[in-house]
Amino acid sequence: MSNVPANLKYATSHEWMLLNADGTVTVGITDHAQEALGDLVFVELPEVGAHFAAEKEIAVVESVKAAADVYAPIAGTVTEVNQAAADAPESVNANAYAAWLFKMTPDNAADLDKMLDAAAYQAVADAA
Amino acid sequence: MLKKTVLNAAHRALGARMVDFGGWDMPVNYGSQIEEHHAVRKDCGMFDVSHMCPVDVVGADCRAFLSRLVANDVAKLTVSGKALYSAMLNEAGGVIDDLIIYFLSDTRFRIVINAGTAEKDLAWMQAKAAEWNLDVTITQRRSGDSALAIIAVQGPNARAKVWQVLPQAKAAIANLKPFFAAEVDQYFIASTGYTGEDGYEIMLPASEAEALWNALHQAGVAPCGLGARDTLRLEAGMNLYGQDMDETVSPLDAGLAWTVAMKDGRDFVGKSALTAAGQRKAFLGLVLLTKGVLRGHQKVITKHGDGEITSGSFSPTLQQSIALARLPLGVQVGDEVEVDIRGKLLKARVTKPVFARNGKAVS
To answer: Does A107 lie at the interface with B, CB-CB under 8 angstroms?
Structure first.
């Protein structure tokens, strides 16, 4: 059973989001996603300053087994990336909620309200 | 409905992550694929490969049959127990399957064929035996009353662990040279494998497989999934059927020329096509010089033209991405090439198609 913290929002494409006090949103992949992928060996992060529409490929995580796209859960501009996750992809396996991938400023903060809560995402993960 | 090996419940009890592997419900890992990989390079791991299909070929014309059926030459098999790796070709010289043939006596051979190709292989073998009007009986041993399971125990400590668990077999198997098999009662124990490490592949009655699996586990042998099996064989430079070669690919273009006995007068299925076509591609290794992961079907750009990766992954031993690739003739070991990964061109170095064996990097 994977870990789904109650304080986060989720996308059906297995990203988690945390709304920060400064209005930015921190994004990573869920525990369910890291477990399904297996040992991660490569993380490709977006450029700071780049703008992405919702559901666009924004990053790539690769395990020994397969490459998986990470999607921008909501539209926005990248403000920061977590180089530590790219330098140590296994940190995402160790704690997917600590090893965030990037932060973005949403085009529209209200978009976050449309994302899944923990209970709804748990249902998605259980069905996968 | 996925097919299951007799060890399915044992995998689930160990918390395996199960996947659909060509229609079989198989363990991809039991936690960390990379840890399982290292266990085999440094200590000892075991794999359930009971989805593969043992085939017994019995009868007065065994040798004549196999001599025409496969590209390698069974005349090399003169000592009982000796094994031979070969491709089985179609008339066009494409690879129907790759397999291991064990010589037991002049009227009895055992072949192990791949899981996903078993039905077509058996149909092909039966058809050829009938066409050539030879006295051979071909019997699959994967299902039915006389079904066999296969457990591969691999790694530098594999032999000692197997002797510990099967003391009654030790005398027969302790001094097996590489690529030999010995029969001990109902057990068929071969010093073959798919990891580049020492070890055994053990065929035994399916009903006894779970007891052996559990005994090996209790002896400290790490259960390993098909994920680690793939990175181990890739590091060892061993081809995977369906990825590195298939019915459209000549063994000469898949790095298997060493398994094709062309020179003598013997005829075999596909020989005339291979003779006519010759080698058209180089089959070599790649090591990625930057971060990233090489994968099958990525395009390789060389000064002699474009090629293609057939198998790629991350090498836990080298801590770099590696691949096997089919490249234009003229590309040499040591050349620098570029690989198109999602539109970016990343530099890679051409190597011999072998990266790690016996616990060590060799590339």
So the answer is: no
Element (H, E) at A84: helix A83-87
Query: Do the Cβ atoms of B292 and A42 come within 8 Å?
Result: yes
Chain B residues in contact with A62 by the CB 8 A cut-off are 292-293, 314
B292 touches chain A (CB under 8 A): yes
User: Residue A44 and residue B28: Cβ atoms within 8 Å?
Assistant: no
Query: A126 and chain B: CB distance < 8 Å anywhere?
Result: no
On whether the CB atoms of residues A60 and A37 are closer than 8 A, the answer is no
Tokens of B165: 């668990």
Q: Flag if A44 and B231 touch (Cβ within 8 Å).
A: no
CB B363, CB B289: distance < 8 Å: no
A64–B292 CB contact, under 8 Å: no
Top-level CATH class of B53-140?
A: alpha beta
Q: Give the closest-approach CA distance of A38 to chain B in angstroms.
A: 7
Q: Distance between alpha carbon B24 and the CA centroid of its chain, in Å? A: 17
Query: Model confidence over B160-202: pLDDT tens digits?
Result: 999 999 999 999 999 999 999 999 999 999 999 999 999 999 9
pLDDT tens, residue by residue, A54-110: 999 999 999 998 899 999 999 999 999 999 999 999 999 999 999 999 999 999 999
In angstroms, what separates the C-alpha of B85 from chain A's closest C-alpha? 27
* From the candidate CATH numbers 3.30.420.10, 3.40.50.1110, 3.30.1360.120, 3.40.50.2300, the one assigned to the domain spanning B8-51+144-235: 3.30.1360.120
Q: Is there a domain that residue A53 lies in? A: yes
Q: Is the sign of the CA dihedral B167, B168, B171, B173 positive or negative? A: negative
Minimal CA separation from B255 to chain A, in Å: 24
Residues of A in contact with B32 (CB under 8 A): 38-39, 93
Cα torsion angle, B267, B273, B276, B277, sign: negative
Decide if B77 contacts B103 (C-beta within 8 A): yes
In whole angstroms, what is the distance from residue B257 CA to residue B237 CA?
Answer: 14
Positive or negative CA dihedral for A12, A16, A21, A23?
Answer: negative
